[in-house]
Amino acid sequence: MKSLSLRWSFLSVLLAGTMVFSAACSNSESSSGDEKPKDEGTPEASEQETVKIGVLASLTGALESYGLQTKQGFELGLDYATDGTMEVAGKKIEVVFEDTETKPEVAVQKATKLLEEDEVDFLVGSSSSGDTLAVLPLAEEYEKIMVVEPAVADSITGSEFNPFVFRTARNSSQDAIAGAAAIAGDGVKIATLAPDYSFGIDGVTAFKEAAEKLGADIVLEEYADPAATDFTANIQKIIESKPDYLFVIWAGANSPWNQISDMKLQEKGIKISTGAPDIAALATMEPLIGMEGFSVYYHGLPTNDINDWLVKEHQARYDGTIPDLFTPGGMSAAISIVEALKKSEGDTDGNALIDVMEGMSFETPKGTMTFRAEDHQALQTMYAIKLEKQDGVDYPVPVLVRELAPEETAPPVRN
């Protein structure tokens, strides 16, 4: 043990020099009252005071806009939840973003890097359900909490569920139940159109279940090539099935809206219904003004202080633009992590956090969310809407018909 005078001489030299060496020197001198050296196996103080979060998102490629929305929302969420300090329970928060390129194999590589090299305490992501499903086993293997946002496949909290997975994103069944609540009823005949892969198939399955419970009759399930640009044959089959409504589930730039308009379905007495997408896709839906459907989020739908803060801050930070479809999800994911750490007093142990987060409620831009204990799916508000033309806005605007409460859109437990 060094003498007291020697210790203070050393400390004076250290403080007179650069501060970046303070963390490295902390192993040789303790700041506790008796100045005892630390054990060799004790983590450095700087590591003990940092929470690391690894965020996986499609920051390039076809889903780049979704990834950017999530990233911006997550950054805003951390700022909001920590009152701008980027600290929780006495620990600094550090975030590492990685681009999955919307490729499951890349998502696994980036997640492994985050877990092994960056030694993150949490995973968040991803923009694609395929990417997310590929990464889920790593969360369990490394015993780290993974907050899923914005991937929607039911299987994430269903057949592929593991206890380290919590989802702030809504799932396909919640979309489907909201869609059914907007249009289904006794004797209503509905045809569906969706892409022929898990996103579309899961969505139609859940929609059909919800719509039939409300008394509707599903007269046709039509699936199209996800890469299709010509939907003529699909739409013709729909016309021949003579439904009252066509419910469409779609994601991507190759949407069927223009052909649905060109083939004059609404003039043939077939009403169109779907989920209101992000703003870029809304701009392609001019032919659907008057449509009844549902929305996961549009900035003008929720009425609460957190959403007001989000809209104001987004406009201030991002050139006057408004938050888009997946921005509040990123914010909600960040808020959920901060709230969990407040409750755990900074404990980042994955197993301990499972007990903390199961059944946990927290406030978001969409109101109160609750992680359901059975499958860790966040129950949340959805919105029945109608598309209207508004002065000064160059796309159809989702206008609120009524809020769909979290209990009303709670999906079946499928795990």
What this model shows, in words?
With about 425 residues, this protein is an alpha/beta fold. The protein folds into three domains: about 5-35 and about 45, no CATH class; about 50-170 and about 300-380, Response regulator (Rossmann fold); about 175-295 and about 385-405, Response regulator (Rossmann fold), CATH 3.40.50.2300. About 35% of the residues lie in helices and about 20% in strands. It has 14 helices and 16 strands. The protein has helices spanning about 5-15, 20-25, 45-50, 65-80, 105-115, 130-140, 170-185, 200-215, 230-240, 255-260, 280, 305-315, 325-345, 350-355; strands at about 50-55, 85-90, 90-100, 120-125, 145-150, 165, 190-195, 215-225, 245-250, 270-275, 290-295, 360-365, 365-370, 380, 380-390, 395-405. A seven-stranded mixed β-sheet has the order 8-7-9-10-11-15-16, with helices on both faces. A hairpin with an 8-residue loop joins strand 15 and strand 16 (about 395-405). The longest helix has 18 residues, at about 65-80. The model is unreliable at about 1-45 (pLDDT under 50).
